Amino acid sequence: QVQAVESGGGLVQPGGSLRLSCAASGNILGINVMGWYRQAPGKERELVAAITRGGSTNYADSVKGRFTISRDNAKNTAYLRMNSLTPEDTAVYYCNANVFLGPARGYVEVWGQGTLVTVSS
After folding, report:
1. How many angstroms separate the CA atoms of 65 and 83, rounded?
2. Of the candidates 17, 36, 38, 26, the residue with the CA atom closest to the CA atom of residue 81
3. How far apart are alpha carbons 50 and 109 in whole angstroms?
4. For 28-83, how does the pLDDT look when each residue is reduced to its tens digit (9 = 90+)?
């Protein structure tokens, strides 16, 4: 089956940086949109950033100018570089991928298990 695995989360001080990675694996013919979502304690899950196969990006206003999403299509991997982190960025970050399995099976949405980012002194 198809899965996505995040890595790179951890504890970082305010003003610091982290890079998250999301590697999709399985019988994947291609991936359309890949995105990063986050869910802070007591809040709804929100879209942080998304990127198409061709490299078009969208960002939440709260992270624009600080976060950068990128992808390596050959590796079926997406990245999220997070700079100038604040305590408000503390959340579980989830990877989402719109995976193409072929003409017979079409697309499926795949979610990772999440990686915790904690921004604190």
Report:
1. 9
2. 17
3. 14
4. 999 999 999 999 999 999 999 999 999 999 999 999 999 999 999 999 999 999 99
